[in-house]
Each structure stands twice: as structure tokens, then as C-alpha cells.
């Protein structure tokens, strides 16, 4: 089962996001922004978080921008961003800032007193062993800043391959989960059938003994609520006799409660083989 994009207009499964965009534009004559507004957009989306003006639409995958301008972005972050602080590993001095941008500026200015750049400080104290290499091809990646570190991929091609690999891994995980569920259900069914067989043999042990001796197999008598096996009979030469020695074969054949359907004959054949 492949992960797909589903068209909300017609229900068609499409493999890629670009394929979905092409489908809705060419077949349904709907612009991506209109489609997003109709089916995907959340309440309040498309408005600047700071001033409330309309923001720019990016694409179906990313939706609208959160801010209408860089100024609104900085103002909103300045009002809502959490206070940040970090200890300088060179001198032990703690730099604090009311938000991420302010803290970043102060920290960069402080590093100049040590003659270090952001990248040099990050490589010296914060860089992890696996950082700085593309997760796909192993080539060196670009450095962002000391808060974000290095990029995970060296190019857009590797980034697309990484996304595809992630989708394949998710698909394999889903298939494995389905396989385990199916296997569990099969085991439960086998256990249920075996338990049913054990119960039948437990309650019909006398009839089983008679079947070994060549007698007729026990009949099932309908008691409306359930089916029981009449084990109070003896079987001699194909005839059924009660405990008092009375032949009751013909009586049971004429009795309206006797079940003579092929279904129960097959049931007997299964459990008496």
C-alpha cells in the first residue's frame, strides 16, 4: 500500500503533491489556492498573526505564510517569543535575551570579543559528530547559525530522496503492522477452532468411542436454545437403543426435533474424522 494524496473533489488517489496540483488545475479547473481554502485551510489561516492582513499563499503543501511582512514577523516574535539564555563556553559568561532574535544578536556580538565567528564557536563546542554531512550522499552541508546548526541535506535532490526514503520506511512500517495484525488474527482463529474441537470431543467422548467400534455417529438434537449431542444411547448394528433397551431409531427419525441437514452431517464428519 503506497502513501498517496487524495483529491477531495473526486476521490482520486495521486502519488505526488505535484500530481495533485496538476490534477485539480487541469481536470477540475480549480486554482491551488481555492482548493486549499475549500478543503485544507484551518480557521484563521491566511491572516497575519500580528496585524491581521492577508498573507501570501505558498502552495498546497505549506499553505499560507504566517506573516504579511518581515516587520510583522519581528514584532510578533518580539512579543511572544520566550526568553533565551546561554552560557559562553569560552569565558563562562551567561548571555540573555528577551527573544530568540535579540539573544542571537547579543551572543554574536559577545563572540567577537573572543575573536570567534558563529561557525567556529559551533564547531568547537556545539557540533555533534554526525552533523555537517548529508544524510543521503555524505557530502558537506551548509551552516545556518549556532541555534540551528548544519543543514541535513546538501541539495534539493538529496532532500527529495530523504523524503522519499522516509515515505518508504513509513510504508514498510505500515505493512509490517498489518502483517502482525493478520498473523495475530489467524493465530486467534486457529486457537478458537482447536478449542471448539476440544470441547466437542470432551462432551461427545461416548459417541466417539462408539464411532471407533463401528457404530453410527451421534445425532444432534435441536433444543431451540442450543444443540446437544444425545450420548445416552447405545449403538448396536446401526440401531439406536435407549438405556431401557428400547429401539428408538425409527422414533428419532420421525421426531420433528431431529436435525437431518447436510450442514450438521458435515459438522459431524469434521469432528469425527
Question: Could you describe the 3D structure shown?
Answer:
The chain is α+β, with helices and mostly antiparallel strands. Among the domains are: 81-116; 204-271, no CATH class. Helices cover 45% and strands 12% of the residues. The protein has 9 helices and 12 strands. The strands form 6 sheets. The chain has a two-stranded antiparallel sheet. Strands 3-4 form a two-stranded antiparallel ribbon. The longest helix has 48 residues, at 156-203. The radius of gyration is 38 Å and the shape is extended. The model is unreliable at 208-245 and 252-273 (pLDDT under 50).
Q: Termini distance?
A: 42 Å
Largest β sheet strand count, sense and barrel closure: 2 strands, antiparallel
Number of strands: 12
SSE arrangement, N to C: EEHHEEHEEHHEEHHEEEEHH
Short synopsis of the structure:
This protein is α+β, with helices and mostly antiparallel strands. The protein contains nine helices and twelve strands.
